[in-house]
Write a sequence for this structure.
């Protein structure tokens, strides 16, 4: 599914003494099957943008189109377009509430009018997709699961509704390093297997550089940069000026260069950074 954002603006408490501009004239297009990372410091407008993409918020001005359909229109086509955009909030496990894992994952499809048999089939497929064995865990209370398993079940609940676009707002927040890596590996696998359009919000520049085909940078409600990881992260000074860093490999290379080591700083992969440092040391 192709997502187009046209001249999108949103003002909180418009016309009130404490009104705040969250988004201002944001325009972008995310093509079907793309994996894009959305980065920006706290308050830059990331979450507000995401909530516009599946109709949870209505623009003050502008449009959001899904395959050419304005998702805020009161039509059957717009309603179906909104259904195809799945949004996973930060700490989605806080929204688990059913008696069993299987019932929880069935909740979304059930609300869309699928039969009990269809709901169960969709839930089982979604659980397998996120690496949860439905035979082993389907009848278990979601509150008996580990933190990482709860996160997977919550994501399965969104996948069970067959979205074509999956939006993840800091999906690894609060997880230990292994859980962090496992969730992101799972997202990559889902992207490849299901050919979904993915938008990932992250404060981790290493994750953004490693996973995404494209980086969208928000600053003070505006789209400040849009390009490949190589293009965006090469703007070292500009990113730092708006309170963002580059991937850790780039940060290290810039530090070494400032200390006199002749290295290429436009490297955002850890293995390539190691090779570059060794080459510089041996050539010194």
């Amino acid at each position: 599914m192709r997502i187009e954002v046209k001249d999108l603006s949103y003002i909180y408490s418009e016309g009130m003494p404490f009104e705040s501009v969250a988004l201002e004239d944001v325009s972008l297009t995310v093509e079907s099957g793309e994996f894009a990372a959305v980065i920006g410091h706290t308050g830059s407008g990331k979450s507000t943008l995401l909530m516009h993409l599946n109709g949870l918020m209505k623009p003050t001005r502008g449009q959001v189109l899904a395959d050419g359909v304005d998702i805020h229109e009161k039509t059957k086509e717009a309603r179906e377009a909104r259904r195809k955009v799945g949004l996973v909030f930060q700490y989605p496990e806080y929204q688990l509430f059913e008696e069993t894992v299987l019932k929880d994952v069935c909740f979304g499809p059930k609300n869309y009018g699928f039969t009990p048999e269809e709901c169960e089939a969709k839930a089982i497929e979604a659980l397998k997709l996120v690496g949860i064995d439905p035979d082993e865990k389907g009848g278990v209370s979601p509150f008996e699961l580990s933190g990482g398993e709860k996160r997977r079940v919550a994501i399965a609940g969104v996948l069970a509704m067959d979205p074509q676009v999956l939006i993840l707002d800091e999906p690894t927040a609060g997880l230990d390093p292994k859980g962090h890596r496992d969730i992101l590996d799972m997202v990559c696998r889902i992207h490849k297997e299901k050919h979904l359009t993915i938008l990932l919000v992250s404060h981790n520049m290493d994750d953004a550089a490693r996973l995404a085909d494209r980086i969208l940078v928000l600053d003070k409600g505006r789209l400040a940069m849009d390009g490949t990881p190589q293009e965006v992260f090469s703007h070292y000074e500009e990113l730092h000026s708006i309170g963002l860093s580059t991937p850790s490999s780039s940060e290290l290379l810039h530090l070494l260069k400032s200390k006199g080591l002749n290295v290429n700083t436009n490297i955002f992969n850890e293995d390539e950074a190691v090779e570059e440092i060794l080459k510089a040391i041996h050539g010194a």
